[in-house]
What we know:
This protein is an alpha/beta fold. Helix content is 47%, strand content 23%. It is built from 5 helices and 5 strands, in the order βαβαβαβααβ. It has helices at 13-26, 51-78, 92-102, 117-123, 126-133, and strands at 3-8, 31-40, 82-90, 107-111, 138-141. Strands 3-2-1-4-5 form a 5-stranded parallel beta sheet, sandwiched between helices.
Amino acid sequence: MPAKVLIPVDGARNSKTAEDYTVRLHEKMPLSVVLLSVIDTKDLDGHGLDPAYKESIIQAKRRFAEKATAEAASNLRAAGIECEKRLLVGHPANLICYTAQQEGFDMVIMAESGRTDFADWYLGSVTNNVLYHCRVPVLLVKHPRK
């Protein structure tokens, strides 16, 4: 039975690093993957934005997320990995942890944050929040050195 793995996808270098590692890990053990893209609304909440304008921003983010998730799914399927795509709207770290816990995932695979140490400390990051709050094991993948 394949291990059930959740991979957060945002189209950035971080998710590509996690996808590449997942392909290598799948060669050692079978995986069943859910690619989760969360349309982040943190920056839209509490600013009194016109609802129509806010919705247009969310739709633009949705199109980007759908494209990123489709590319990730294509890469994983080319490597013979069974995967499912999901899109949620809200706060990424909370939804990643909630989904992983509620649906009984064996692990979350994600790459280290792309921010500087100071930005991570001051602003926090999705990666840090998932690492410290998720009740499911989190596999943190380091970026390859160039």
